[in-house]
Write a structure and sequence with these properties.
disordered N terminus; 10 helices; disordered C terminus
């Protein structure tokens, strides 16, 4: 996995979650707190999720084959989607079930210092993991807000780790609140309520992750800045006079497919057109290094044809320019 995949953040989160999962489960055994059990399962699920991200990154590095000529870059998207499923089922649904059971059959928390101590330790450890993910993300985020970064990032690992760590910190605060209220009031129902809140939180985060990774799996185009760079690099004003239409598609986080119909001068020879295409491909790769698969089709520009609007059958998915609002 490339550095942009956030391997450092994933490893930091994996180490923190494994340690936290063990400590939470020990605290559950001594205290009987359902919040602690839900949180231990949550941390265990998070550990599995980070392992899935590492496996996806490794599998994505495989070379292209005749059966998969564009490679395996989307493996990273598939494993990120699996993370959202695990978080929803193992984390969220289990927490909802455990919270319901605790509210239905409440009991006092024993040895309160175990869950409180472990939760404080977990907040510190998760804070370290979250800080690492933020530092790794800041190198890629630029001027984007955090919401824009999560929504627009083509590499799924950092958004996944960011959301998981953020959810874990909020979940720990909820667990601490549930345990604290249960101890103050002597009513174990509060522990169950805290567990229910953790379940709802995990399900919401899982749904957000599922929506974002689904979009990546379906296939997203290049970002606006990369599209502008490609357009600027394609046209040389000499042989290649304009782009008639263009499509881009991410084959993986660091692999971009570019397909375009370009206008060339009608009096150019085949050899001159071929040389111009080769030069345009070189300029595109220099401007956007992740543009690894490029197909340029030469054509003669016609103003009358262009006036008819984008050809909806020129490529799958309809016109490249969105229709105007009515």
């Amino acid at each position: 996995m490339s550095a942009s995949g956030g391997t450092k953040a994933i490893v930091a989160a994996l180490g923190a979650n494994l340690a936290i999962a063990v400590s939470k489960f020990v605290a559950f055994l001594f205290s009987g707190s359902s919040s602690m059990l839900a949180e231990s399962v949550h941390s265990l699920a998070d550990s599995g999720n980070q392992a899935l991200l590492l496996v996806g990154g490794k599998k994505a590095q495989r070379e292209a084959t005749p059966q998969h000529p564009f490679g395996y870059g989307r493996e990273r998207y598939i494993y990120a989607f699996l993370v959202s499923i695990v978080l929803f089922s193992v984390g969220g649904m289990f927490a909802l079930y455990e919270g319901y059971e605790k509210i239905k059959h409440p009991h006092d928390i024993e040895h309160w210092y175990w869950p409180v101590g472990v939760l404080v330790f977990a907040i510190v450890a998760e804070g370290f993991s979250f800080r690492t993910a933020i530092r790794e993300s800041n190198t890629l985020r630029g001027k984007q807000s955090w919401t824009e970064f999560v929504r627009r990032a083509k590499a799924p690992e950092l958004p996944v780790v960011l959301l998981e760590d953020f959810g874990a910190l909020i979940g720990l605060i909820l667990a601490l609140g549930g345990v604290g209220l249960a101890l103050l009031t002597g009513d174990g129902v509060w522990d169950g309520i805290g567990t229910l809140c953790i379940g709802v939180l995990l399900i919401v985060i899982a749904l957000v992750l599922a929506a974002e990774t689904k979009s990546l799996l379906l296939g997203e185009s290049a970002g606006i800045e990369d599209v502008r760079k490609i357009e600027g690099a394609t046209v040389d004003g000499d042989t290649v006079t304009r782009i008639i239409h263009m499509r881009t598609l991410h084959l993986g986080p660091e692999e971009l497919l570019v397909a375009a119909k370009i206008a060339v001068r009608h009096d150019e020879t085949a050899a001159e057109v071929a040389a111009a295409i080769d030069a345009a491909e070189a300029r595109i790769r220099e401007a956007v290094p992740i543009a690894r698969v490029i197909y340029l089709e030469p054509d003669i520009y016609s103003a009358s044809e262009a006036a008819k609007g984008p050809d909806s059958e020129a490529a799958p998915g309809g016109p490249s320019t969105p229709p105007a609002a009515h």
